[in-house]
Amino acid sequence: MQQLKAEVASITPLTEFVFKVILKPQHAVEFEAGQYLQLVLGEKDKRAFSIASSPSQSEQLELHIGASGADSYAMQSLEHLRTAHENAQLVDLEVGLGVSQLRPEQARPLVLLAGGTGFSYVKSMADRLAEINYSSPVLFYWGVKEESALYAKAEMEAWAEKQPHFQFIPVVENAGQDWKGHTGYVHQAVMKDIVSLEPYSIYMAGRFDMIGIVRDDFIEHGASREYMYADAFAFIK
After folding, report:
1. Domain final residue pick, 43, 70, 97
2. Cβ distance 30 to 55 under 8 Å?
3. d(CA 88, CA 7)
4. Residues sharing a CB contact under 8 Å with residue 119, sequence separation 6 or more, in sequence order
5. Which residues pair with 179 in a beta bridge?
6. Same domain, 219 and 129
7. pLDDT tens for residues 131-165?
8. pTM for this structure?
9. What is the pLDDT of residues 75-95, one digit of tens each?
10. Most distant CA pair in the chain, distance
């Protein structure tokens, strides 16, 4: 873990409730794809956010923060960042946390699964896999409630086009009549598409209650717990 200070370079809306934050660390930063950072608001107040950028982008860190009035944890963090940005102040960070980072040395086919802003966790992995020309199949499933929440759909479609064995599969829970893709719960789309998850390594991010359900259903569908990764596992039974 690195402790460092960073400039808040920009805060831009991706949707009504999701914001992209670009941080520029004072010093070179090291982390692995799939790790997270903590925004330090106080000695006993540290807020965890997945790093959306690839480790190769050592000059900046990208976060996707979903914040609304109902989510004080994220909204307070966003306000802290906005205040720092407006006053040209540095923020304190702890970078390189988590135990669910990408493990490309396993050379297994991959399922990357994200619910909502859990997208940022697997986006870092997706970018890294493209950079290293990962040669096994990679299936990126992103589940959202409404189609309008697919703020990076075009970007991920472009990612999938870079290599023929990369696939991006968006899943909309409450789809409109014009939606042509998968509907319902994202992990059920995975089980519909894949006969058995036995050969796959699986990386997951989303609400803790969601991740517990996905883990149990995937194990019943052939997945090995040994090859399932989510930092949420440390907080759920």
Report:
1. 97
2. yes
3. 7
4. 52, 64, 142, 152, 205
5. none
6. yes
7. 999 999 999 999 999 999 999 999 999 999 988 89
8. 0.94
9. 999 999 999 999 999 999 999
10. 54
